[in-house]
Automatic annotation (TrEMBL):
Belongs to the eIF-2B gamma/epsilon subunits family. PROSITE patterns: W2. This is Translation initiation factor eIF2B subunit epsilon. It is found in: Cytoplasm, Cytosol. It comes from the Eukaryota. The lineage of its organism: Eukaryota, Sar, Stramenopiles, Ochrophyta, Bolidophyceae. SMART domains: eIF5C. Residues 429-449, 477-496 have a biased composition (Acidic residues). Component of the translation initiation factor 2B (eIF2B) complex which is a heterodecamer of two sets of five different subunits: alpha, beta, gamma, delta and epsilon. Subunits alpha, beta and delta comprise a regulatory subcomplex and subunits epsilon and gamma comprise a catalytic subcomplex. Within the complex, the hexameric regulatory complex resides at the center, with the two heterodimeric catalytic subcomplexes bound on opposite sides. GO terms for molecular function: guanyl-nucleotide exchange factor activity; translation initiation factor activity; translation initiation factor binding. Keywords: Cytoplasm. One of its GO terms (cellular component) is cytosol.
Length: 757
């Protein structure tokens, strides 16, 4: 064994804690403080994770901070955790995603223990990690490619701990627990593609959809090195793990394994306010013992102590908490220190923070009230979160799913709409950080920063004349990079298809999961949500299957959007990349070299020959457009002549890339995309697509069999809006009729010759 490996084994166990979740799902609560310092059952989330790491034998912890780094550092330095663990803050405000953070850690060379624990700062767990560490060490010693172990827990499909946005599908080798597939299926994806190798009788692969990713990983330092090598990796799960387990070629694999939690073990991440509330309830009901409200993390016992009583009610006993005699405290409640609750109130399934005052006849149900909150008489709060320093004035109603940011004031008699989020932060670009969930997946970046700035002005129609705050809207980015704040889209019952389900509503307490699932099933069957949140059945404009494209009226790059394919690097526009490879080809070079290069790329991305042919046709189009210029493109005859000349030159490549007749369909799909490119409008209107089909047929580039296959797909309605419109064009119909007549005449001539013989 190399000396450095022996040294690594002797190094004390280290851990990396990502204090930034790189999400926006905890806004507006996280505008003023980092998510990891937000209270969960009156304890900062960071304290849960550090307490667990210390109890698991970790001796040195690196807390990586980006946003609000100074607050985290100050909190760490002022805390009094057990001396068994050394905590160091690593600050780098230039990082925008977890990949950047791991590359920075690798650059600094701080992590030296093999293995080390990596986790998010918003995880709550009671796992005994010793067995998982032992298994990981054994596997890594046998094969250095075994570099990562992911902790997972089997949970019901309807568990509130699961994210509504993603449906995790994992392929596990039942013999070794090696992960062979790691797919985060999106809402409208009713199916998941499984590699054919899984169906081999000897594969022993079990595909599971009931696993919860706990956000805890056991890693060798090689994981950090891999991120330094793959400089474009931003997301740990959706890029690194997904692509690593999809690699099938021996020698190139980063092998990743799963460790399943036992029946009494608990681990979950606070993804958003919905999971925040679910985890809070689990702790109150003691599912994560010994992590329970009456067993506080180290240091808290100096100030607070909770007494556990029947019906899962916890009262702080060191402070001066006063509750009126006729106020009802029902199941599943926590009452913080120095709380003062007047008579006639009712509190159920709620957490009350420290130093709070409630007036008479206050009703709080299923809610979380943080510290220093003042609530007037006759106020109702239902399944909401009220952050530090807020005031809710007399007679106000806080409807389900609301989040009231720090120091906001809700005026007298105001009724907030369900799922409203109120903030009084003037500059709302400070928050949890980057993108979606341990990730910076560009395709998932639907919820963008709401950048304010300047002097703060309250919205009196929302919070009242005596209130303070404004309604916070996520900013939705459209395809062209524009943005809009659409209150209806993000409100209850508004919006269309998936946008509604990944919106504020689905990340809030009180979200109707059953209703959402019903709408989800209807959407998957081809319906669209109407304005009332119902479903109107009808086909959309999206293309289906076979690697083809969905019609779009946007610019040409939209034609490169395609469905997820197993074994393909996420975010890669395969046809576009193939087109670019063809554009780099020099006509003085042999097409044999280009064919080899295209074939290699095809295998690396699990593409098809149809993709290759489609990319080649689009490369031809780009060469023609560049050669003719804007003036030349205005002449249908000039475009057709140039296309014919260029297509004939590429005949050799088309022959090499069409081992089957059906592969030629990619040439036709490429021609469809060609005439829909910007600048080709006049050519399309002049029957250009029909002329291309005729040319391809006359030059023997395209067989009649391939045209028939393409025709059959379009008859079935496959191909998207533009594809179906081109197929319905009268000139195309005339060409297909002529082709059929020619085929019939040819068959008749052959029959006559046979009779004469």
């Amino acid at each position: 064994m190399p000396a450095d490996e022996v040294d690594r084994e002797d190094i004390k166990l280290q851990a990396v804690l990502l204090a930034d979740s790189f999400t926006k799902t905890f806004r507006p609560a996280s505008f003023d403080k980092p998510k990891v310092l937000c209270p969960l059952n009156n304890v900062a989330m960071l304290d849960y994770t550090i307490e667990w790491l210390a109890s698991s034998g970790v001796e040195e912890l690196f807390v990586f901070c980006v946003q609000h780094a100074d607050q985290v550092k100050a909190y760490v330095e002022s805390s009094s955790w057990t001396t068994a663990i050394k905590v160091t803050c690593v600050k780098d405000t230039t990082c925008t995603n977890p990949g950047d953070a791991l590359r920075e850690l690798d650059k600094r060379g701080l992590v030296r223990s093999d293995p080390f624990i990596m986790m998010s700062g918003d995880v709550v767990t009671n796992v005994d990690v010793r067995e998982a560490l032992k298994e990981h060490k054994k596997r890594h010693k046998a094969d250095s490619a075994n570099m990562m172990t992911v902790l997972m827990k089997e949970v019901p499909h309807n568990s509130p701990l699961r994210s509504v946005a993603d449906d995790l599908i994992v392929g596990i080798n039942s013999n070794s627990n090696q992960i062979c597939m790691f797919e985060s299926r999106k809402f409208k994806d009713s199916n998941v593609q499984i590699p054919s190798s899984f169906f081999d009788a000897q594969s022993n692969i079990c595909v599971k959809s009931d696993l919860l990713d706990c956000g805890i990983d056991i890693c060798s330092p090689d994981v950090l090195a891999r991120f330094s090598d793959e400089f474009d990796y931003k997301d740990i799960r959706k890029q690194f793990i997904r692509n690593s387990v999809a690699e099938e070629e021996e020698g190139l694999q980063n092998k990743i394994f799963a460790h399943f939690l036992g029946s009494t073990e608990y681990a979950a991440r606070v993804h958003d306010f919905r999971t925040y509330s679910a985890i809070s309830k689990d702790l109150i009901r003691r599912w994560c013992y010994p992590v329970v409200p009456d067993n506080l993390p180290s240091g808290y016992e100096r100030k607070f102590a909770y007494e556990y009583s029947r019906h899962f009610v916890y009262r702080e006993v060191k402070g001066n908490t006063v509750v009126a005699r006729n106020t009802q405290i029902k199941n599943g409640c926590i009452l913080g220190a120095n709380a003062n609750i007047e008579e006639g109130g009712k509190i159920a399934s709620s957490v009350i923070g420290n130093d709070c005052y409630f007036g008479k006849n206050v009703v709080i149900e299923g809610s979380h009230i943080w510290s220093n909150v003042k609530i007037g008489s006759n106020v109702k709060v239902d399944q909401s979160i009220i952050c530090d320093g807020c005031e809710i004035k007399e007679g106000a109603v806080i409807s389900k799913g609301c989040v009231i940011g720090s120091n906001c004031v809700i005026g007298k008699g105001i009724v907030l709409k369900p799922f409203s989020r109120i903030t009084c932060s003037a500059n709302t670009d400070e928050g949890d950080d980057g993108d979606d969930d341990w990730s910076d997946s560009e395709e998932d970046e639907d919820v963008q920063e709401d950048v304010g700035g300047g002097e703060f002005e309250s919205e009196v129609d929302v919070v009242g004349e005596d209130g303070k705050g404004k309604l916070w809207h996520p900013v939705v980015t459209d395809e062209d990079g524009g943005s809009s704040e659409d209150e209806e889209e993000w409100g209850e019952g508004g919006g269309e298809d998936w946008d509604e389900f990944v919106s504020v509503e689905s990340q809030s307490i009180g979200f109707d999961v059953k209703g959402a699932n019903a709408r989800k099933i209807k959407l998957q069957s081809g319906g669209d949500l109407d304005d009332s949140g119902g479903v109107s059945v009808g086909g959309g404009d999206d293309g289906e299957g076979e690697g083809e494209w969905g019609g779009s009226e946007n610019d040409g790059d939209m034609f490169f959007e395609e469905a997820h394919v197993v074994g393909r690097q996420k975010g890669v526009d395969v046809v576009k990349e193939l087109r670019d490879l063809c554009l780099e080809h020099d006509h003085n070079s042999s097409f044999q070299n280009l064919a080899i290069e295209l074939n290699s790329f095809k295998f690396s991305q699990n593409a098809t020959y149809e993709d290759v042919n489609c990319g080649a046709v689009l490369a031809v189009a780009e060469r023609v457009k560049e050669g003719l210029g804007d003036e030349g493109l205005s002449s249908v005859a000039k475009v057709l002549s140039a296309l014919k000349k260029e297509l004939v030159l590429w005949t050799e490549l088309f022959e090499k890339c069409t081992p089957r007749k059906a592969d030629e369909c990619g040439i036709i799909v490429g021609a469809e995309r060609l005439v829909c490119l910007p600048g080709m409008e006049k050519f399309r209107a002049g029957g250009g697509f029909r002329f291309i089909l005729q040319t391809l047929h006359d030059e023997d580039i395209l067989s009649e069999e391939a045209i028939e296959v393409w025709k059959g797909r379009r008859v079935k309605g496959e191909g998207g809006k533009d594809g179906l419109e081109l197929f319905a064009d009268q000139s195309v119909k005339d060409f297909l009729e002529w082709l059929e007549e020619e085929s019939d005449e040819s068959d008749g001539s052959e029959d006559e010759e046979e009779e004469e013989d």
